[in-house]
Amino acid sequence: MGAPDEELMLAYRDGDAGAFNALYHRHRGALFRYVLGGIKERALAEELYQEIWIRVIEARSRYEPRARFTTWLYTIAHNRMVDHWRERGLSLVSLEDAPEAGDASADPARGAEGREALRSLAAALEALPALQREAFLLHEEAGLSVAEIAAATGSNEEAAKSRLRYAIAKLKAAVDHG
């Protein structure tokens, strides 16, 4: 797996550009999915995603490993998305561009069921209140704990735990009844 994220970020802070590349490649997929999960337009999500990485680059000289690197990274992402929402209003993701669920060529019925389940989940995710959706995405996409979600979003652990619990319950109910 390689060096821990915090060691890589410290190495990058101290001038090792290769360490940044390792961090970028390790976190690019989950971070992009998190941003796309909060922004409806793919092109805009890509722009914000790049701005988040620029902010990481700009903040490298101030980096201190006080928490997991992912908590620090997703705090930057959360703050950039909050800025975006304040500037333009909340925009919800449409997962129409999500990859097809299953291989429809192998089993067309299973592929159709998978796409329908994905659409149901996407609709349920879109219907969640913004704070619940964010808690869910931070937990599922970024792998953050409740404490890390609280730190990344500037809330307390009880609020983060509650948001995550409600999000999971609503998504489960939507999928079970969808």
Give an overview of the whole structure.
With 178 residues, this protein is mostly helical. It has two domains: 1-93, Orthogonal Bundle (Rna Polymerase Sigma Factor, Chain: A), CATH 1.10.1740.10; 103-178, Winged helix-like DNA-binding domain superfamily/Winged helix DNA-binding domain (Arc Repressor Mutant, subunit A, Orthogonal Bundle). Helices cover 72% and strands 0% of the residues. The protein is built from eight helices and no strands. It has helices at residues 5-13, 17-38, 42-59, 69-88, 108-127, 130-140, 146-153, 157-177. Helix 2 crosses helix 4, helix 4 crosses helix 7 (146-153) and helix 6 packs across helix 8 (157-177). The longest helix is centred in the first third of the chain and has 22 residues, at 17-38. The radius of gyration is 17 Å and the shape is globular. The N and C termini lie far apart (39 Å).
Amino- and carboxy-terminal Cα gap? 39 Å
Q: How many beta-strand runs? A: 0
Oligomer: single chain
* Strand content bin: under 5%
Percent range of helical residues: over 70%
Number of domains: 2
Please, what is the CATH homologous superfamily of the largest domain?
A: RNA polymerase sigma factor, region 2, helix turn helix motif
CATH topology-level fold name of the largest domain: Rna Polymerase Sigma Factor, Chain: A
Largest sheet: none
Topology:
Elements: H1 5-13, H2 17-38, H3 42-59, H4 69-88, H5 108-127, H6 130-140, H7 146-153, H8 157-177
Helix pairs in contact: 1-2, 2-3, 2-4, 2-6, 3-4, 4-7, 5-8, 6-8, 7-8
